[in-house]
Amino acid sequence: xxxxxxxxxxxxxxxxxxxxxxxxxxxxxxxxxxxxxxxxxxxxxxxxxxxxxxxxxxxxxxxxxxxxxxxxxxxxxxxxxxxxxxxxxxxxxxxxxxxxxxxxxxxxxxxxxxxxxxxxxxxxxxxxxxxxxxxxxxxxxxxxxxxxxxxxxxxxxxxxxxxxxxxxxxxxxxxxxxxxxxxxxxxxxxxxxxxxxxxxxxxxxxxxxxxxxxxxxxxxxxxxxxxxxxxxxxxxxxxxxxxxxxxxxxxxxxxxxxxxxxxxxxxxxxxxxxxxxxxxxxxxxxxxxxx
Length: 291
What we know:
- By secondary structure, the protein is of the alpha/beta class.
- The chain has 11 helices and 10 strands.
- The strands form 2 sheets. A 7-stranded mixed β-sheet has the order 1-7-6-5-4-2-3, sandwiched between helices. A 3-stranded antiparallel β-sheet has the order 8-10-9, with helices on one face.
- Helix 5 links the parallel strand 5 and strand 6.
- It starts with a strand and ends with a helix.
């Protein structure tokens, strides 16, 4: 295991260890902007893997051309997914492991939302699947699980050579996590699951209010199984940015345009479950009045 100053830091530094100018990273889109930006910082190029509703918001590995695979050094995956809230089945991870082994690609699985799940259906961990440790690593953050956003503490587990490479970069760029935050993290990790269950129940209640409310006013979305986001289609007559601007200007409701996560996100809007159920009800009613 390698301790991180938040999983974002580890993800951002990983390409510096393994990507050279002219190399490629396979990057999901829509997705977390750190994936392509960190690749760019390392001098590499991103090959975009579109995440479409038709494919369950999973990348189509078979559609990646051999020319990109020959230059690929990393593949970024992220489940439960930000921004789509999609969950990956075990079979997908098995496919990724075989794919990475065949083309000698390092898998970087961002599992920041793994503990925010609903209906008692815990998402599959990539690193639990046989063969995962031979091809990659998994990142986790205490920010989401323990409401420690801003404390900057996370970790990576998996392939020891990949962790060693990331550790070499970190040893030249930072001096570790602030001790008080480490001690707080120790307490968090020892917390009984009853507390985490309570956090999940809170988010599930909010999910149900938002999903049901948006559906009731004609805004389509998948019912999230995990994460604290809801990925909804912009209503007819609006693109992503236009609908977000309309909600903000006319209803005082803030969401994030899907195209901000990449071109394949156009036509969608990401809502976050980070306010109370009462505020969600109020937001839905405000949106209803401007449609």
